[in-house]
Write a structure and sequence with these properties.
Elements (H helix, E strand, L loop, with lengths): L2 E4 L6 E4 L28 E3 L13 E5 L13 E4 L2 E5 L3 E6 L13 H18 L7 E8 L12 E7 L4 H17 L3 H12 L3 E4 L3 E4 L10 E5 L11 H21 L5 E6 L14 H4 L3 E6 L6 H6 L8 H10 L2
Antiparallel strand pairs: 1-2, 1-6, 3-4, 4-7, 5-6, 7-9, 8-9, 8-13, 10-11, 11-12, 12-14, 13-14
Helix pairs in contact: 1-4
Length: 330
């Protein structure tokens, strides 16, 4: 059974997993390809939705439990004190969203309709997991490439984790957004969006509903954010036409990255509002001060000792240079 331990100084939670990640043979069958459904745990959901027997071909997007989960949904939630320390049982959800039945490396290779189905799967699973009051946050992420930590590097997929705690990175974003709102009575992300549209130099791509930017204080070369034009705290609350617009912009943006940085490793994070059902009084201003968004962080190099030890990031490409290079490719 996994367990979460909290650093009492920084507030950072660490998961001590009960099983190592699987080691996949390079020449073995891909467990995510259509026809190999028996190589994954029994599926949770599939798109398009169907009354057909599960764990068989005929799907476009498929959601399955992670074969080596960091957290387990069947475990009862227990919070305990270990002298001065805080410990939480490894209770949660850890799911894999297989974004195509075909063996494709990148989301940029998928047609808009396929990406829209993957986004619909994200929204549906987030909505379902938020019904479980044990989970304080639902975190969607994608690891592409070895440097980004991909376990199945050859088949495009993403992961969804339901957490019994609010992760430090999300909490810092939420607290910063709240502080900005208390000072300005405006959403920080809406302010950033307007500033970047006015300046123009860090805008990479626009659509009717979204804007992709190279953020002003980029941590990694060619880091990009995708911000919805409409203020909304929760990704899963977006309408189908909004997801369809994102389904066109997201693979195009990733395609730009892949033309500037051939076959880049990257992490993609979806930052959406935490589960208010778990702590109704905790995030009372969230609807006004938080704005869901996506961050894409190319991983060109491993983090250095300076970065790991200090918390600073050293970046060799300014966001203005990155945005200009990404706009120049089509």
């Amino acid at each position: 059974m996994s367990v979460l331990r909290r650093d009492p100084i920084t507030g950072r939670w660490v998961v001590f997993a009960d099983a190592p990640p699987p080691v996949l043979a390079a020449d073995g069958p891909c467990p995510f390809c259509a026809g190999n459904e028996q190589l994954t745990p029994p599926e949770i959901a599939r798109w398009p939705r169907s009354d057909r027997r599960h764990d068989r071909p005929g799907w476009s997007v498929r959601v399955v439990p992670n074969a080596r989960p960091l957290l387990r949904i069947e475990a009862p939630l227990e919070r305990t004190a270990d002298r001065i320390y805080d410990t939480v049982s490894g209770t949660g959800a850890h799911e894999i969203v297989i974004e195509t039945p075909e063996h494709r490396r990148s989301l940029a290779e998928l047609p808009r309709e396929q990406v829209a189905l993957a986004l619909a799967a994200w929204a549906a699973r987030m909505e379902d997991l938020k019904r479980d009051k044990r989970f304080r946050a639902i975190f969607v992420f994608k690891n592409q490439g070895v440097l980004a930590g991909a376990g199945v590097p050859g088949h495009v997929h993403s992961q969804i984790i339901g957490l019994p705690v609010t992760p430090k990175a999300l909490k810092e974003i939420l607290q910063g957004a709240r502080a900005h709102y208390q000072l300005k009575e405006r959403c920080a992300f809406c302010d950033i969006l307007q500033e970047e549209l006015d300046a123009g130099v860090r805008v990479v791509q626009e659509s009717a509903r979204f804007v992709a930017i190279a953020p002003y204080a980029s941590r990694h070369p060619y880091e990009c954010w995708i911000l919805p034009r409409e203020h909304r705290a929760d990704f899963e609350a977006a309408a189908a036409d909004e997801r369809d617009d994102l389904a066109a912009l997201l693979p195009t943006l990733l395609g730009r990255l892949e033309r500037v940085l051939p076959e880049p490793d990257y992490n993609l994070f979806l930052y959406s509002g935490p589960n208010r059902q778990a702590r109704p009084a905790k995030w009372s201003t969230l609807e006004a001060d938080f704005h869901w968004h996506i961050q894409v962080l190319p991983r060109l190099l491993h983090e250095t000792g300076f970065e790991l030890g200090s918390g600073f990031f050293a970046n060799t490409v300014t966001p203005e240079q990155a945005a200009a290079a990404l706009r120049a490719v089509t």
